Amino acid sequence: MRVVIAGGHGKIARHLERLLAGTGDEAVGIIRNVEQAPALRDLSAEPVVLDLESAAVDEVADVLKGADVAVFAAGAGPGSGAARKETVDLGAARLFADAAERAGVRRHIQIGSIGVDRPARPGTDEVFAAYLRAKKAAEDDLRARDLDWTILRPGRLTDEPAIGEVHLAEKVDYGEIPREDVAAVLIALFEEPRSFRRTLELVTGNTPVDEAITRL
């Protein structure tokens, strides 16, 4: 299996790349900074340097050609302003989906965030409110496409070791989840048709990952 990951140097992406190397699958990570390339190679992933804020759709489609799965795990990240939430969390997500359609890659998984479909609370920081708006708009854009998409919304992400037990459903109570567990769930969803065209929320729970998938 060939998996192309937007945001290839992100924390979830690096867990995913490591797990894919362990299964003998091919991971391709799209990164903005050439200095991040050695870290991906250390994980047996192929780095591709491409700025999704400025790339043309054909450039991204060339990377996606021949892929079995496209994973959008990019984000403007902490410390970025409201404008970059629009250009990365929405704009790059839209570009990546456009490119997947052009390259003929039907399986598409996008990392979302719990809470984006709820109104921002009064007094919410404007940058965080912009992030929520951008993530929701990116979800709405993907849902309108003729792709085998899944939107995966993890709760608060942590860097704790994987627990291996999760709660995965269309709606879950807010909680947290190790990034390593998110990566394991991503792989389990790749070829799971019961997850196609669904928005799923994910937090730590009491169900092993494989069992949580079968319960969808």
Task: Describe this entry's structure for a reader.
This protein is an alpha/beta fold and 216 residues long. The protein is built from 7 helices and 11 strands. The strands form 2 sheets. It has a 9-stranded mixed beta sheet, with helices on both faces. Strands 7-9 form a two-stranded parallel sheet. Helix 1 (11-23) packs across helix 6 (179-189) and helix 3 (57-64) packs across helix 4. The model has no long low-confidence stretch (mean pLDDT 95).
Give the N-to-C terminal Cα separation: 23 Å
**Radius of gyration from the alpha-carbon trace, in angstroms:** 16 Å
Order of helices and strands: EHEHEHEHEHEEEEHEEH
Strand content: 15-25%
Low-confidence stretches: none
**Shape designation:** globular
* Average pLDDT: 95
Beta-strand segment tally: 11
- Fraction of residues in H or I helices: 25-40%
The strands making up the biggest β-sheet line up spatially as 3-2-1-4-5-6-10-8-11
Number of helices: 7
Sheet with most strands: 9 strands, mixed
Structural class computed from helices and strand pairing: alpha/beta
Pfam families: NAD_binding_10
Protein name: NAD(P)H-binding protein
InterPro entries: NAD(P)-bd_dom (IPR016040), NAD(P)-bd_dom_sf (IPR036291)
Domain NAD(P)-binding: 7-193
Keywords:
NAD(P)-bd_dom_sf, NAD(P)-bd_dom, NAD(P)H-binding protein, 216 residues, two-stranded parallel sheet, 7 helices, globular, 9-stranded mixed β-sheet
